[in-house]
């Protein structure tokens, strides 16, 4: 990351902020008139959102090609699961329609709320793993892209 261009660092900053807003607004960590929350946020919601946002921003920045890079990147996109888990981990357990449909309001408080910190740990681990995997791919030897093809001559004799 020390060799990253300002363009990549800018992409990381913008992506981190966008990720934080995309998660914080609908989960009502940022108070808006559109979304509400029945259960107040936990003490760890903001710190964990900040960590996830930073990791997600750095991960997005690995997809910003440096000027010397060309062609598509064959590595997969592995961080989306971590981002999705962060959304469920910091959200209100009884405000989430999927959780309510699956568990009901009593189940959301009894079963889902205690699991939310574990979801966040898994989310951070997945984001960190995806970032590490992407950065390891950048450090590996690059394949030359502009190497002329060799011609093979066949001898008719």
UniProtKB/TrEMBL annotation:
Keyword Transmembrane annotated: yes
Keywords, sorted A to Z:
Membrane, Transmembrane, Transmembrane helix
Bilayer-crossing residues are 43-66, 78-103, 115-131
Could you identify this protein by its name? Integral membrane protein
Q: Which organism is it from?
A: Nocardioides cremeus
């Amino acid at each position: 990351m020390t060799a990253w261009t300002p363009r990549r660092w800018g992409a990381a900053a913008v992506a981190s902020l966008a990720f934080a807003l995309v998660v914080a607004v609908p989960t009502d960590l940022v108070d808006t008139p559109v979304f509400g929350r029945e259960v107040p946020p936990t003490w760890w919601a903001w710190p964990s959102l900040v960590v996830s946002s930073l990791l997600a921003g750095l991960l997005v920045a690995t997809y910003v090609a440096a000027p010397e890079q060309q062609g598509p990147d064959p590595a997969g996109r592995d961080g989306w699961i971590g981002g999705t888990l962060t959304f469920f981990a910091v959200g209100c357990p009884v405000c989430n329609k999927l959780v309510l449909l699956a568990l009901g309001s009593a189940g959301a408080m009894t079963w889902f709320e205690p699991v939310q910190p574990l979801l966040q740990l898994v989310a951070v681990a997945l984001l960190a793993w995806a970032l590490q995997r992407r950065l390891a791919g950048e450090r590996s030897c690059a394949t030359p892209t502009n190497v002329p093809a060799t011609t093979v001559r066949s001898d008719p004799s």
